[in-house]
What we know:
Chain A is α+β, with helices and mostly antiparallel strands and about 475 residues long. Chain A is about 45% helix and about 20% strand. In chain B, the strands form three sheets. Chain B has a five-stranded parallel sheet with strand order 2-1-3-4-5, with helices on both faces. In chain B, strands 6-7-8-9 form a four-stranded antiparallel sheet, with helices on one face. A three-stranded antiparallel sheet of chain B has the order 10-12-11.
Amino acid sequence: MTSIRRRMTLPIMLGLMLLAIATGFGCYGYAHHVLEREFDTALEAKARAIATLVEIEQDKKIRIEFSEQNMPEFTSKNSPQYFQVWLPDGTTLARSTSLKGDNIPRRKKDDRSHQSYNIVLPNGKNGRVVQLRFRPQLEIDEYRPTAPPPDAPKCTVAVARDRQELDGTLHILILMIFTATVFLPLVAAFIVYGAVRWGLRPVDDMAKAITEVETPAGFRPLPVADLPQELKPIAVQLNSMMDRLKAAFDRERQFTRDASHELRTPLSEVRTALEVALKWQSDQELMATSCRDALSATRDMERLVTALLALARSETGAIQPQTESVDVCALIKSCWGRLESRVGGRRLDLCPGQEGRVIVTADSALLTAVITNLLDNAISYSPEGSAIKADVHQDKSATRVEISNETETPLSPDDLDDIYEPLWRKEAARAHAEHDDEASHAGLGLSLVRSFCRIMGVGLSAELPSPSQFKMILKFFHRS
Amino acid sequence: MRILVIEDSRRLRQALEAGLRRTGFAVDMAPEGNEGYRLARSGEYDVIVLDLMLPNMDGLEILRRLRAERVDSHVLILTAKDRVDQRVTGLTAGADDYLVKPFAFDELVARLHALTRRRHGIKNPEISIGPLTVNVAARTVSRDGEPVLLTAREYALLEYLAMRRGQVVTRSEIEDRIYDGRVEPASNVVDSAVCNLRKKIDASKTPASESLIQTRRNLGYVLDEPTA
């Protein structure tokens, strides 16, 4: 399993380790170069000093005026220095007594004026040589040496000394760097581990808070203000998502309660009617009335259950719309005709001022259910003798179908948020049919309308032109 | 006993009315809250069967108003609301009983009888008047241990008189309690019912002066042992 902590810690530690190693090597290399250069500079200065002692006389003879008393370093018993001067022809002009007759290894073929290289000294120790090629000065006056002419032959001087001290310094340096290279990453690893752990603590806290949640009701919103910037969007979204989930759970629980509540009254009607009928079986009229009422109540329950199932199917995506062209005014008229028995003196003003057909693209069966539910609602909640209006408006983007009615029970703007909730009714007691030919209303009509409109991609909205007027609007968008 | 049923479901109202009347109750019906409240506040009912989800005025509001006005009719809430907190709310508001839909009709009747007995302060279900024993729980009548068969209305009349044993019960009270108040003025339906009842509960050939149901001229009737 991938771990953020591991993803952060390992690369950082490896990076630090490589950085430490690279830095160590870099430091060592630089220090080695600097120290050696200083060593060489000192040897070069010594070589130049010796070179100035070599003169070319007027008879073209080259000689050196060297005094060991002036340069006692070449006679020291402990770590003496060494020098040797060669004439242009390669013969030795002079050498230090410290060489004891040996020669300093000389690089002959290289014409560079300045060279430095490592050798093994006559005493067996490691040493370093600086070799110079130079033109001897011209002696005109003993006391005023003159710069050599450009065609003067070149001599070579080499100065050597042991590099034990230099090497010792370099060894100490490399030891220090090695130690730092080993321990620094270990210390860094410890620091990195602690820092990552501290840095990820808000993530750990969030994970712990989420893990403890067993139900949406048990979720306590994460405190966003104290969280790091990177976690705030996650916490905000999580809080919002859990709020929605909690609301959905609450709605589902409420729906289950409401549905069972809705079934209780028709069940009571059936049970009481049949119990009373069976108690007085000899009363034929009572028996007939009870059976009719029980049957009517059973039909109400059937309607409720059918509506609940339709709602469940529509919300689980089980319904696939079959789109076709539908004449919406003709459909409204047809649906109204099927509700004729419930109209009760109400009239339908259908598409006033509309001539010709109005065609929309929709699933015919679903649209029929939508229109029927809207008209059924309008009939149920409008006063007897009132007008229900069905209007159609068309523009470039959409065709709007508006079904409006007067309402006996005034609605408020707040109610428009609730009207689509399953089993919601403004007055809970309006569920029951007063007449045998009335269907009782369980408050599922607009829930089904909303669900079916979503499936068809039809816009749905509600308006209150006035407190006693209610309007439902269907919007069929024109597809380009 | 006189019952008021406030229930907006037409079918349930019809079934309850048919059953309760045949059981011997005098029953009035109200289909919505305002009318139910208007009838209930008269205080003439032994028990009010009250639905909670009513149009115009819900059941709990009716109950609270009745109790505030000191209407002492017993109230049995009949509702689909079954949660404990809802039952507690109903009983705390002043209801005497709570029955959840769907319910058994016999249970409703038994609870109504229990509330009626409570209204008349009767704890012992057996009321003895001389040789006559009326068991208001079992709804049986016996004389000297022998069962006496009565119609529902006759039993309702006898039960009402027995619950008010020793008290004068006026004709109008009997009309209200037993006949839903639906008696034509100057009708002798009460007298006729009392006469029929005497025939069944008195020993044969008992003179009127020695009947268990005594007439108080211009007042009404009293059920009691005849004074020697």
